[in-house]
Design a protein that fits this description.
Blueprint lengths: L40 H6 L6 H18 L11 H23 L5 H14 L3 H21 L6 H7 L4 E6 L2 E6 L8 E4 L8 E7 L1 E4 L10 E3 L4 E2 L4 E2 L4 E7 L5 H14 L7 H24 L2 H10 L3 H21 L1 E3 L2 H7 L4 E5 L5 E12 L5 H12 L5 H12 L9 E5 L3 E6 L2 E6 L1 H6 L6 H6 L5 E7 L2 E12 L3 H10 L3 E5 L4 H11 L3 E3 L4 H13 L4 E5 L5 H6 L2 E5 L4 H6 L2 E3 L5 H36 L5 H20 L5 E2 L5 E2 L7
Parallel strand pairs: 11-18, 11-20, 18-19, 20-21, 21-22
Antiparallel strand pairs: 1-2, 1-3, 3-9, 4-7, 4-9, 5-6, 5-8, 10-22, 12-17, 13-14, 14-15, 15-16, 16-17, 23-24
Helix pairs in contact: 2-3, 2-5, 3-4, 3-5, 4-5, 4-8, 4-9, 5-10, 8-9, 8-10, 8-21, 9-21, 9-22, 10-21, 10-22, 11-21, 12-13, 16-21, 21-22
Length: 669
């Protein structure tokens, strides 16, 4: 083998990844609305915490103050509840402060709406009502804080994946140097099992390279002298000497890092849905209160309008719906990293799917054995496995593993020879066995039936076998499609979402998988940057995109999509780059999570419309003097409890001792 030219002193391990060319998505119009990326890091930072003891103490004080006011405990002043006022001051202080800051920033938010309702209730000595409103707001903030994702480490993990030391031949001497000091034109040596640290060309050696994490190519690619290799791909078998052509940020792996960084920077901040909806109600309530006072000059009716028109149902119901949906999705096997991502997932109309490791297992397997007439399948397998017994080729190893799985006894070859790019030439017993491609058999003058040649066009790899000058048949090897993938694709389409297959694999392979799964839009032979550009092209059309992937090569596209979804068995970088992580590899979990997100969105909007309807009726009644502040407060609290109860339908049911769910019905899509 030519890799023997590289001496044992040249052994070293390294790493990095790949290259790109633009791709444009197929036509297929999406909704006209253009949606910007939803990550709001500054805002997330404000709520990047769990339940702190300070919040617990504050909630307890407000709750105790409400009990004291309700039972009229210690009221030394006739018109003011000292305990109620103290509870409002201590418990509501964070709300008032944020409302004031938002007012200075000219933002109408939930905190401003709540502050107006609390202070209005306190102004007419309705301290219990004010405390109840405060309690709801504080609990809502805690619930939201528990749902927002913590810091993302995608860039850090990408950088940690890079090699720190590289074996370089300088002036004929092998030296280990820092990866940052490698220069274009230098010779880099990579041992079996090492990661290739540069984009370049093989000078000497022969090996099979796993490029699946970079290009998505499911099978290892054979590399000989003159072949191009990409940083970040893994050298599986022989030692290689590579001439460096692109290093660092100029390599494919560097482009992946830059793509993730750029996508992170380009994410536009988006306010929480609760803030936006409550903001609308703030304008509505203030305008109605001002109109009431102008028309009636009745301060009591004006305060009743403000109290009845509060947005507490939205303020507390929204984070509860988000928390319930996230909890239900988690129980079903999908981790949603925050409420913002759930909101965007509920709007997704296009689902982009990676192939290798997502729709398929990512490992070659024997799909079928095709012996010619008169030859038993066991004879074909025995001959192929014996010839491949010493082979390092991934397809050869697959055949040997298949034979062993059938319980076949594999004969030891007396002679074994490998022709790079063609296949195996071996002697088994007295028989001369050939296992490889059509070129190998043609060179030996062995005719192959046309039917076997046509079969090779189905997207799978065909290994042809001949013995003693006779063609025995072929073995079909491919990356097997996950059994649940078709059902998942069907469910996604049933939800009204468009499906697109993206892959770095060859067109024939991609088309075969797409046809098997019923996916009509396919883009193949894409590098990581191509995938990112494809996803960006979809968003420019107005599509709201969810990208599902599992490899390093998928990270830029995951971040470029409105919602990035990573398979649980995928790389750390993919999981950190994603907004949703599927535990395990069942795509049906994503379809179920998409249904949950849509239901959560419907519930949130139902709460908003219901709140608007109740507020409208209440404002009219209060404006005409038909609601006093106490009755207005009752309607306010009753309506918000109703909407909170509506949101609570998403909260996962508790489980009985037997493990069955009780209490809350499973949502129907």
């Amino acid at each position: 083998m030519s890799s023997e030219r590289i001496s044992n002193e040249d052994r070293e391990v390294n790493s990095m990844p790949q290259e790109s060319a633009p791709a444009t998505p197929d036509d297929g119009g999406c909704a006209a609305m253009q949606v910007s990326r939803h990550h709001d890091h500054d805002h997330d930072h404000d709520h990047d915490h769990g339940f702190s003891w300070v919040e617990g103490v504050r909630i307890a004080i407000v709750a105790l103050a409400a009990v004291a006011v309700w039972f009229r405990i210690w009221e030394p002043l006739s018109s003011i509840s000292v305990l109620g006022a103290a509870g409002l001051l201590i418990g509501g202080w964070p709300i008032y402060r944020e409302a004031f800051e938002n007012l200075l920033a000219r933002r109408m938010t939930m905190e401003l709406s709540m502050s107006i309702a609390i202070l209005a209730a306190a102004a007419i000595a309705q301290f219990f009502t004010a405390l109840v409103i405060t309690l709801f707001v504080l609990i809502a903030e805690v619930l939201e804080g528990l749902t927002v994702s913590r810091g993302r480490r995608a860039i850090h993990d990408l950088l940690e994946f890079l090699p720190r030391a590289v074996a370089v031949r300088r002036a004929g001497v092998l030296a280990e140097v820092d990866a940052d000091t490698v220069q274009p034109g230098e010779s880099v040596l990579v041992n079996p099992g090492g990661r290739i640290p540069v984009d370049g060309t093989v000078i000497a050696g022969h090996s099979f390279i796993d490029e699946s994490r970079i290009t998505g190519e499911s099978l290892p690619v054979e590399k000989l002298a003159g072949a191009a290799v990409f940083a970040g791909s893994i050298n599986q078998s022989g030692a290689l000497e590579i001439r460096a052509e692109r290093i660092g940020r100029d390599t494919s792996y560097g482009k992946i890092i830059e793509a993730v960084e750029q996508a992170e920077r380009s994410r536009a901040p988006v306010q929480r849905l609760a803030d936006r909806l409550a903001g609308y109600l703030v304008y509505f309530a203030l305008a109605a209160a001002a109109l009431t006072y102008v028309l009636t000059r009745d301060l009591r009716s004006t305060i009743s309008v403000i109290i009845v028109a509060g947005a507490c149902g939205i303020a507390a119901g929204t984070p509860l719906a988000i928390l319930g949906a996230i909890g239900r999705a988690a129980r079903g096997g999908a981790i949603i990293k925050g409420g913002l991502y759930l909101e965007q997932l509920g709007r997704v109309d296009t689902v982009v799917l990676d192939k290798t490791g997502t729709l398929t297992f990512g490992q070659p397997q024997v799909q079928a054995v095709h012996p010619v007439e008169g030859i038993d399948a066991d004879v074909l397998i025995d001959a192929a496995a014996a010839a491949e017994l010493r082979s390092e080729h991934p397809l050869g190893k697959t055949i040997v593993a298949y034979a062993r799985g059938l319980g076949r006894t594999i004969a030891e070859p007396e002679h074994f020879g490998y022709e790079p790019g063609r296949g195996i030439d071996a002697t088994v017993g007295t028989a001369h066995v050939l296992v490889g491609n059509l070129a190998l058999l043609a060179a030996q003058g062995i005719p192959v039936p046309q039917q076997a040649v046509v079969r090779a066009q189905n997207g799978a790899s065909q290994v042809y076998v001949a013995r003693s000058g006779q063609f025995l048949g072929s073995i079909e090897i491919a990356d097997r499609v996950r059994p649940e993938a078709r059902r998942a694709v069907d469910q996604i389409r049933a939800l009204g979402a468009r499906t697109v297959l993206l892959t770095g694999d060859a067109r024939a392979v991609a088309d075969a998988v797409a046809e098997q799964l019923g996916i009509r839009e396919v883009a193949s032979e894409l590098m990581p940057e191509d995938k990112r550009q494809y996803v960006q092209g979809l968003t420019r059309e107005g599509c709201i995109v969810a990208m599902i992937g599992d490899g390093v090569n998928d990270a830029p596209a995951l971040v470029a999509a409105q919602v990035g979804v990573a398979m649980g068995s995928g790389t750390d970088v993919a999981r950190e780059s994603a907004d949703v992580v599927l535990l395990g590899n069942d795509l049906v979990k994503f379809a179920e999570t998409l249904a949950i997100a849509r239901r959560a969105r419907r519930i949130i909007w139902a709460n908003f419309i219901g709140t608007l309807a109740v507020d409208t009726v209440g404002i009219v009644l209060a404006g005409f003097g038909l609601l006093n502040p106490l009755l207005a407060a009752f309607i306010h609290v009753a309506s918000e409890l109703t909407f909170i109860g509506n949101s609570a339908r998403l909260v996962p049911a508790r489980r009985s001792a037997a493990g069955a769910e009780v209490g809350t019905a499973e949502p129907s899509g």
